[in-house]
UniProtKB/TrEMBL annotation:
The enzyme's E.C. designation: 6.3.2.12, 6.3.2.17
Group of enzyme by EC: ligase
Mur ligase C-terminal domain boundaries: 267-346
Assigned keywords, A-Z: ATP-binding, Folate biosynthesis, Ligase, Magnesium, Metal-binding, Nucleotide-binding
Protein name: Dihydrofolate synthase/folylpolyglutamate synthase
Pathway the protein takes part in: Cofactor biosynthesis; tetrahydrofolylpolyglutamate biosynthesis; Cofactor biosynthesis; tetrahydrofolate biosynthesis; 7,8-dihydrofolate from 2-amino-4-hydroxy-6-hydroxymethyl-7,8-dihydropteridine diphosphate and 4-aminobenzoate: step 2/2
Its biological purpose: Functions in two distinct reactions of the de novo folate biosynthetic pathway. Catalyzes the addition of a glutamate residue to dihydropteroate (7,8-dihydropteroate or H2Pte) to form dihydrofolate (7,8-dihydrofolate monoglutamate or H2Pte-Glu). Also catalyzes successive additions of L-glutamate to tetrahydrofolate or 10-formyltetrahydrofolate or 5,10-methylenetetrahydrofolate, leading to folylpolyglutamate derivatives.
Taxonomic lineage of the native organism: Bacteria, Pseudomonadati, Myxococcota, Polyangia, Nannocystales
PANTHER family, alphabetized: DIHYDROFOLATE SYNTHETASE-RELATED, FOLYLPOLYGLUTAMATE SYNTHASE-RELATED
InterPro entries on file: Folylpolyglutamate_synth, Folylpolyglutamate_synth_CS, Mur-like_cat_sf, Mur_ligase_C, Mur_ligase_C_dom_sf, Mur_ligase_cen
């Protein structure tokens, strides 16, 4: 299963990932100012949290587009192409457009900036630049991680949506729910009203305290009666309720039915392949995997196997524990050289493969599907994107459309 070789400009951009997360917004603010503060004054729906940010953001954008608004949507990470992160009126940017934007952002680096921009900072400013020049009416911005020092905070929010908060990225955000919630709750300093998904008591207490400190209106939403059509799973009832609240804050005519028909790949996504079925889900922490498992429990299959892999900084034991609730064979596949050491998690129900290119893995994959089986791929965006691209081939570029709404 071969992967695409990225062009030189993209390789240079990805090299910025080695900078990691740098605490402080001074550089991204300076770059934003040097480019004329693109996006200033445009209404912003800021989506913060641990899980469900992408789905929630996609639903907000979809609902507002249904009401005739031109929307800029910024999300992360991507599955196949970096341009998926920046969408204007439902369409992801082309590689050529991305290269031009990245070059323009990097051109302001130098004495005017206190340090080099990180990967996420470059893409955030590029998104704001693209949205401003396209004249979008609303921007939906998903945070990368955290909230207090996230680059998306360079433009103030009109309304903030807080998705479920759980343990993830502990190396940057802290080892407790309270610490992580505190990092995310710090976005309230903007003063924008906040709508939150139901939270664990510890997280809810932190959010309530921050709202009181900043004098911000905070409301917890109730799940919708059903998940929006297009995004299956009970957890999407919560994400849908949050998205509806955010869209209503921009346009009071939005209705729950405007969420229907949204398309967001690799969220309980079932694809026919090779005589069988593949389910792709981008859940990459125990809370996200638990939502997938709950959905799969309601979708029994007599011949199901689970394909799992993740990077070294993730809670692999916690995710594998959730997957083992299904009682299905577990295929452990490291997605990259810096993957979690999955050998330590192997047991009688599992098979360990060297990587997605291993002949043994490819043969097992093909044989399982040929026999009418189902494969569930999860744990890492890298693994999901890689295998989804193989299954869909050229059709993987359909991810360039967030949903089936006609383009203007």
């Amino acid at each position: 299963m071969s992967s695409r070789t990225p062009p030189a400009w993209q390789s240079a951009l990805f090299a910025r990932r080695t900078l990691g997360m740098i605490r402080g917004l001074e550089a991204v603010r300076a770059a934003h100012a040097a480019l004329g503060r693109p996006g200033a004054g445009v209404p912003v729906v800021h989506v913060v949290g641990t899980n469900g940010k992408g789905s929630t953001s996609a639903m907000v954008a979809h609902a507002l587009r249904r009401r005739g608004h031109t929307v800029g949507l910024y999300t992360s990470p991507h599955l196949h192409r970096v341009g998926e992160r920046i969408r204007i009126d439902g369409a992801a940017l082309s590689d050529a457009a991305m290269q031009t934007l990245v070059d323009r952002v990097l051109a302001v680096e130098g004495p005017a900036l206190p340090r080099a921009l990180t990967f996420f900072e470059i893409l955030t400013v590029a998104a704001l630049l693209a949205f401003a020049e396209a004249g979008v009416e609303v921007m939906v911005l998903e945070t990368g991680l955290g909230g207090r020092l996230d680059a998306t905070g360079v433009v103030p929010a009109t309304v903030t949506l807080m998705t479920p908060i759980d343990l993830d990225h502990q190396a940057y955000l802290g080892d407790t729910i309270e610490a992580i919630a505190g990092e995310k709750a710090a976005v309230m300093r903007d003063g924008a009203p906040v709508f939150s998904a139901p939270q664990q008591p510890a997280a809810a207490a932190v959010l309530c305290a921050a709202a009181a400190e900043h004098g911000v209106a905070l409301r917890f939403v109730d799940p919708l009666a059903r998940a929006p059509v297009g995004l299956p799973g009970e957890h999407q009832r919560v994400n849908g309720a949050l998205a509806l609240a955010g869209a209503l804050a921009i346009d009071a005519t939005v209705a729950a039915s405007d969420l229907d028909g949204v398309r967001w790949p690799a969220r309980c996504e079932r694809v026919a392949s090779g005589g069988g079925t593949v389910v792709f889900d981008a859940g990459h922490n125990p809370h996200g995997i638990a939502a997938l498992v709950t959905w799969l429990e309601g979708q029994p299959h007599p011949r199901r196997a689970l394909v799992f892999g993740c990077l070294a900084d993730k809670d692999a034991p916690g995710m594998v524990a959730q997957l083992r609730r299904l009682g299905a064979p577990l295929w452990l596949v490291p997605p990259a050289p810096d993957a979690y050491d999955l050998g330590a998690l192997a047991g009688g129900d599992s098979r360990l493969f060297a990587d997605p290119d291993a002949p043994e893995f490819r043969a097992a994959w093909d044989a399982h599907l040929a026999a009418g089986g189902e494969l569930v791929v999860c744990g890492s965006h890298m693994l999901v994107g890689r295998l989804r691209g193989e299954v869909l081939g050229e059709a993987a570029d359909e991810v360039a459309l967030t949903d089936p709404l006609a383009r203007r």
